[in-house]
Amino acid sequence: MYWLEYYEPRIKINYNAAYGSGCGVGQKLRAAGVAAGDESWGNLQINLDSAGDKMYDFAAECLTRIGHQNYNLSQWLVKANDYLDAMGEPEPFTMDTLINAMLTATPEQITYFIGLVDAYRLTIWNEPFNAEFYAAIARGFER
Question: Which site from 4, 62, 95, 110 is most exposed, i.e. has the minimal number of CB atoms within 10 Å?
Answer without folding.
Answer: 95
